[in-house]
Amino acid sequence: xxxxxxxxxxxxxxxxxxxxxxxxxxxxxxxxxxxxxxxxxxxxxxxxxxxxxxxxxxxxxxxxxxxxxxxxxxxxxxxxxxxxxxxxxxxxxxxxxxxxxxxxxxxxxxxxxxxxxxxxxxxxxxxxxxxxxxxxxxxxxxxxxxxxxxxxxxxxxxxxxxxxxxxxxxxxxxxxxxxxxxxxxxxxxxxxxxxxxxxxxxxxxxxxxxxxxxxxxxxxxxxxxxxxxxxxxxxxxxxxxxxxxxxxxxxxxxxxxxxxxxxxxxxxxxxxxxxxxxxxxxxxxxxxxxxxxxxxxxxxxxxxxxxxxxxxxxxxxxxxxxxxxxxxxxxxxxxxxxxxxxxxxxxxxxxxxxxxxxxxxxxxxxxxxxxxxxxxxxxxxxxxxxxxxxxxxxxxxxxxxxxxxxxxxxxxxxxxxxxxxxxxxxxxxxxxxxxxxxxxxxxxxxxxxxxxxxxxxxxxxxxxxxxxxxxxxxxxxxxxxxxxxxxxxxxxxxxxxxxxxxxxxxxxxxxxxxxxxxxxxxxxxxxxxxxxxxxxxxxxxxxxxxxxxxxxxxxxxxxxxxxxxxxxxxxxxxxxxxxxxxxxxxxxxxxxxxxxxxxxxxxxxxxxxxxxxxxxxxxxxxxxxxxxxxxxxxxxxxxxxxxxxxxxxxxxxxxxxxxxxxxxxxxxxxxxxxxxxxxxxxxxxxxxxxxxxxxxxxxxxxxxxxxxxxxxxxxxxxxxxxxxx
Length: 725
Known about the structure:
Layout lengths: L3 E4 L21 H4 L10 H4 L1 E7 L2 E7 L1 H6 L2 H4 L7 H4 L6 H27 L1 H10 L8 H6 L5 H21 L3 H24 L19 H17 L5 H9 L3 H9 L26 H4 L4 H33 L17 H4 L9 E6 L5 E5 L2 E13 L10 E7 L5 E2 L1 E7 L1 E7 L2 E6 L5 E9 L2 H5 L2 E7 L5 H7 L8 H40 L18 H49 L1 E4 L1 H16 L2 H32 L5 H14 L5 E2 L2 E2 L2 H20 L3 E4 L17
Parallel strand pairs: 14-17
Antiparallel strand pairs: 1-2, 2-3, 4-6, 5-6, 6-12, 7-8, 7-11, 7-13, 9-12, 10-11, 15-16
Protein name: Transmembrane protein
Keywords: Membrane, Transmembrane, Transmembrane helix
């Protein structure tokens, strides 16, 4: 395993920082084992770059000059791994990024509603705010926000969103499809508003990528302009990546330190100290923040999360692919002739295949008896006839009109005397109408024909099939693909797939960070603290008052860091839960009533699949909260050990009382992640899964009768034909 060292002047252009990358951080433990690490001073002369492969993955490590000179090549391969050096694109330190994110949160809470009014009513409010004639009569928030807004961004967002909604109103044949896509575009509206605030420098907020505007490279400027255009309304979910850059790149130790300063009772983590339980000597204070960045703990996280992370990723890819495939069908209105490929879906809504049955038959042997009266000859015969395929409820039980044609293809008159294995409805002249019976592929009838047996034997039975209503399968088979009308729905589909994917990646990345944060913190008590390049951890005895106080102080800061991450995750997961509740509730109502409009029923199925692809990331949150909740049992174990020691030594420095207080805090007053007032836990998640599985099983066991949803009257305005149902 080779290690290549380069100075800034000789580093490749794709790795070497540009002039605006002033904040690079040394990855050596001597510098990185810190709560608030300072960036490398004088990057031009002191920064060093080491190219290594870590478990087969290329990585660039950054060092200050002193650490680079002091470390061996093997040590350089085992330093903590930082990603923020690689994604650093502006002159913002780690703490400044976190502070900027908090300001953005405040701005979103304060200005989201005023901004929504400005964007949605831009043709009215824009001139009033721009020219000032009626500005004094407008709300103060609108007047306060307007000068700071990127006007071009706002105008482009209004144009793209309004154009999208007009396209939705014109391009889908069913009203329910318009409502479905309109609600999905509600996410785009939300993300577009957040994107505007992300680029609105107000109240001290600084955007991480605005400096790209000032880059003199025309290629970078073009890329950034295209990205901004997409975020304005094309694919606005991409703008979440800019927010993610603020809080996902800094090391967890920095996030914990920043959060400690925002607590109601701020904690100075740099002032905390720990004692070695064996020697009673102070432990190096850098080891405590080191637990959040050290490589041994990172390997422990990989061992715990490895296969689970892969399973979640596999589930995410599968759900996004399935969601895209189902949405592309006629149900989503994207490709009208593409079938809904869920096995048994049509049987669930009692939609027969409405097959166009074929018929064949012949005279029964020795069944013809001719009677001649004067010049007239009449023959009484038995015809044995059969359907292809065999009639069933699923295939369809249509009204069949039967007639017999001669060699000139002219129907001849006949009179039915008796019929077997069919439900005869009417017979007159040259036609007989009847319904086939389920699972009766063959039937017979005795009838009288004009002519002798030879003439009757030459007749050919012909059947015409009539269905009272068009089945779903017949509707899909009758659709034609108008290429000109597919472009916009396909754009919406690709946008939805991108939205679902980026949406889930953002939530999954931060949910995994929350889980990793609690695993690292839990390692303080369960594993210990690792020296800079040591492989044997130093145990932390929480029975020591100093260690216990420090542990609890860090825990409070970890909870604060969790709040910082959940401020991003929680709203998105809450929206997915609302979507699941509405879609799942609608399916239950239709299952209980026994009737369902189409394609509304299948659109609710799509909504359930779409929400599940996001809600799978409740699992890492539940694992994190499981670790947090288990601290109560862990402290009780420490309390028991302390009581045993106290009985032996008869000494107490107040640790027992302190443990009792901490146990009560963890058990009864701990701050957990909640959704709609319900704490996140593995038990609650299991209950949700069981409830969902039971509900879906119930829905799948209930066959409903379908009726067609309301047609979209605007669909015909762009040259489309309203579908015949």
